[in-house]
């Protein structure tokens, strides 16, 4: 979280490009990325930022281009680079899909704007109680809020902004404070790919045949906490091996906008028309498991009985969950 927080602070400093019109030439260009090559990543970022006004505004690009969401897309590009072309239009379509989700419009983007406004505030100890409430509303963990407070209390400069304090905290951070991501292990495992439209009964039949419980992972392209778990928890080899060996594991996306055949349309419990795979998956989660949050993991037996369930968690907690 601290790494993400600090990254958001620096977004307006790096890779700023302004375009008056959508750059259609770049849309059809094939993405070329080389693992661990900073220059290819810089070129990629520059070209992506030039797509402002292609349905995305600068705030959208700031959020998506430097967030775990983009890390997820980059890993997907590297995994598929030799098997299928990946153009900037492909990426744009994925990003536009994310910006249209309710979570992005009503949660992620407003919080980002609030955070940027917060970093411009004067860091005054007299206003700490009200400033702390803003950080809590942004769901910044208590230990990082405490770290900001300690830095504020000990600050010799009384005329600085929170951005300056956060920059100083970032410079003082040691490598072991940051989470290590294992993209190669993660990207090469098809286990986490979108399962698509879930046939619940067939999953139970499979469970009866191979005598393994089903582990359903309800997630979304725009679910930042899910992406964090994929990077920090689900990418670990011991976790991947366990999921492959002991479970019928399926990734269920609740924001998959793939249209359903008209004959499969239905009504939600609230009377809304269900026309997409994601909406159908979401209704399955709510109706079967009484949960509408992501990430959400649920282990069920061959009869559909819930054995265990788990939400967002760290490595130790999730390891215990699947044991």
TrEMBL record:
- Which superkingdom, per the lineage? Bacteria
Query: Which positions carry the signal peptide feature in this UniProt record?
Result: 1-18
Sequence ranges assigned to domain Thioredoxin-like fold in this UniProt record: 208-321
What Gene3D superfamilies would the database entry show?
Glutaredoxin
Can you name this protein? Answer: Thioredoxin fold domain-containing protein
The record's keywords, sorted A to Z, are: Signal
């Amino acid at each position: 979280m601290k790494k993400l927080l600090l990254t958001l602070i620096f977004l307006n400093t790096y890779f700023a490009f302004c375009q008056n019109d959508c750059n259609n030439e770049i849309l059809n260009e094939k993405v070329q990325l080389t693992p661990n090559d900073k220059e290819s990543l810089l070129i990629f970022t520059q070209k992506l930022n030039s797509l402002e006004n292609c349905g995305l505004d600068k705030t959208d690009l700031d959020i998506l281009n430097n967030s775990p969401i983009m890390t997820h897309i980059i890993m997907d590009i590297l995994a598929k680079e030799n098997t299928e072309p990946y153009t900037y239009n492909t990426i744009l379509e994925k990003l536009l899909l994310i910006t249209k989700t309710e979570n992005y419009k009503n949660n992620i983007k407003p919080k980002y704007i609030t955070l940027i406004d917060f970093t411009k505030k004067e860091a005054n100890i007299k206003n700490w109680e009200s400033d702390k409430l803003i950080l809590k509303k942004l769901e910044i963990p208590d230990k990082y809020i405490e770290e900001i407070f300690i830095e504020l209390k000990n600050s010799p400069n009384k005329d600085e902004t929170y951005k300056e304090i956060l920059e100083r905290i970032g410079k003082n951070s040691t490598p072991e404070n940051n989470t290590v991501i294992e993209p190669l292990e993660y990207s090469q495992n098809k286990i986490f790919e979108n399962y698509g439209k879930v046939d619940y009964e067939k999953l139970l039949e499979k469970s009866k045949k191979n005598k393994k419980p089903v582990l359903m992972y309800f997630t979304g392209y725009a679910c930042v906490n899910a992406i964090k778990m994929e990077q920090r928890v689900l990418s670990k080899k011991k976790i991947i091996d366990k999921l492959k060996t002991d479970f019928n594991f399926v990734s269920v996306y609740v924001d998959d906008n793939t249209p359903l055949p008209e004959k499969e349309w239905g009504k939600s419990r609230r009377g809304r028309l269900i026309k997409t795979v994601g909406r159908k998956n979401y209704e399955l989660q709510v109706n079967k498991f009484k949960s509408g949050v992501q990430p959400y993991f649920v282990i069920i037996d061959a009869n559909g009985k819930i054995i265990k369930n788990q939400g967002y968690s760290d490595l130790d907690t999730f390891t215990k969950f699947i044991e």
